[in-house]
Write a structure and sequence with these properties.
Order of helices and strands: HHHEEHHEHEHEEE
Number of helices: 7
Shape: elongated
Helix content: 25-40%
Structural class: alpha+beta
Number of domains: 2
Strand content: 5-15%
CATH class of the largest domain: Alpha Beta
Length: about 200
């Protein structure tokens, strides 16, 4: 059996430290590890070792997505606030919970983008406040309203990707609501409180 077949995975290694409680056997095991490291390469236990410097460095400050952010703000690496709001001030979020729901949707959109070779995402409909939703003939219960905690939606395509293929991938990988809009040229990706896996045709 190769050593790579029995090595701890990254997650298994992290779990050792996540569940460390300073118990006697745990402290003894850590000291054993220190001794093994010292025997293998003493420089790894010096104050200037790269891993120690990293451990002591300041954490990155993650800027929170809030309603007042400029439309140029990137919710995820490739999706801006303006894209979700269709570059319209009338579609700017007004509550923090709307931003949090949108963040979750956009993180999945990033996965879809990556799956299909990093081609540009095109959001055809995002947040629709009541007046905007009514003007486009949207349902009064539309997920696009983002009108309660954990409720929201985006309609999208990926440039150069067959929309039916995109829809099938989302169907297999998204555990919330999905509207089969491929016949109309888009995929509806949604989420609602307690809704779980929901599917429907347009």
């Amino acid at each position: 059996m190769a050593i790579t077949d029995i090595q701890l995975t990254s997650q298994e290694w992290q779990n050792f430290w996540r569940y460390f409680k300073g118990e006697p056997q745990q402290q003894e095991a850590v000291e054993m590890l220190r001794q093994f490291i010292n025997e293998a390469d003493p420089t790894l236990l010096t104050q200037n070792a790269t891993w120690i410097q990293k451990y002591r460095s300041q954490p990155l400050v993650i800027e929170r997505f809030t309603p007042d952010k400029p439309f140029s703000y990137r919710i995820t690496p490739h999706i801006t606030y303006g894209e979700v709001a269709m570059q319209s001030e009338a579609r700017r979020f007004t509550q923090q919970q709307e931003c949090e729901t949108c963040q979750m949707l956009c993180e999945f959109l990033e996965k879809a983008r990556s799956e299909f070779g990093g081609k540009p995402l095109i959001i055809t409909s995002g947040y629709r406040p009541p007046t905007v939703n009514a003007s486009v003939g949207g349902s009064v219960t539309s997920e696009h309203l983002y009108d309660m905690q954990g409720k929201g939606a985006v309609d999208f395509t990926i440039d150069g990707v067959n929309v039916f293929q995109l829809q099938d991938w989302c169907d297999a990988n998204w555990d919330h609501s999905l509207g089969y809009g491929a016949k109309k040229g888009f995929v509806h990706l949604g989420i609602r409180p307690g809704g779980g896996r929901i599917r429907w045709d347009y």
